[in-house]
Amino acid sequence: MAAAELEYESVLCVKPDVNVYRIPPRTSNRGYRASDWKLDHPDWTGRLRVTSKGKTAYIKLEDKVSGELFAQAPIDQYPGIAVETVTDSSRYFVIRIQDGTGRSAFIGIGFTDRGDAFDFNVSLQDHFKWVKQETEISRESQEADTRPKLDLGFKEGQTIKLNIGNMTTKKGGVAKPRVSGSGGLSLLPPPPGGKIAVPPIPPPSSTAIANQVTPPPVLKSSNASSADILLDLDAPVSASKAPASATADLWGDFSTASSAVPNQAPQQSNWVQF
């Protein structure tokens, strides 16, 4: 069983001086006139309080000293039949009071200060303005509940694809750039410094040293001269097969320019002897 909603009574306005008048019945539809009342001789004088409980406002006439309730006027709308203004003044109003048995009567109230009458009027206007807003909000809420709701959720198996620039990836990964090389191989990008590292040259292995052909050393005879070594470099003929006289006189004599040809007369020498 749901708990009953509690309503609290709040005070909207309090005025310490108010005059109450007995008014004659209204004889026409043109409204009430305060000049028809005995304004100099009010029938009762006391305190006025305006309270609210839920959407209903109450005008309460109370004794100034004891606070005893003299009369009460429940108001369900304003302006309305429960509270009316007179046609010839802004300080006087006609209210409908009710007792506990359901009987009602119309009486006149008036304020000596015009500002008190203004505050009394504004307090009722503000309350029923709030009631109107609450009614509209409640009606819109009920209409929203009756309208079909828009389903924006994903159905089973439904996916969504997002393209953010050129960073379309799968499984939340980041796409890495690939550089295609010759033969369909992928090469790594260069280092950040912009320099390509050169691989170190491996040291020579023992196998390469073993496979290298070393030329045999040139054997020198004990009786061979330096001229024989030079002769071996210039002529293909072996030094051992050359005659001994030719080997000995290979360079000739620098002191003479005579011809070595036999049976030929000697000629004048053009060489200077040192």
Automatic annotation (TrEMBL):
Keyword Cell membrane in record: yes
Chain ranges of the NECAP PHear domain: 8-165
One GO CC term on file: clathrin vesicle coat
Major subcellular location class: membrane
Keyword entries, A-Z: Cell membrane, Cytoplasmic vesicle, Endocytosis, Membrane, Phosphoprotein, Protein transport, Repeat, Transport
Cellular location(s): Cell membrane; Cytoplasmic vesicle, Clathrin-coated vesicle membrane
Keyword Phosphoprotein: yes
InterPro entries cross-referenced by the UniProt entry: NECAP_PHear (IPR012466), PH-like_dom_sf (IPR011993)
Record GO biological process: endocytosis; protein transport
PANTHER family: ADAPTIN EAR-BINDING COAT-ASSOCIATED PROTEIN 1, ATP-BINDING CASSETTE ABC TRANSPORTER-RELATED
Family as reported in the entry's similarity comment: Belongs to the NECAP family.
Protein purpose: Involved in endocytosis.
Protein name: Adaptin ear-binding coat-associated protein 1
Phylogenetic classification of the source organism: Eukaryota, Metazoa, Chordata, Craniata, Vertebrata
Recorded name of the encoding gene: NECAP1
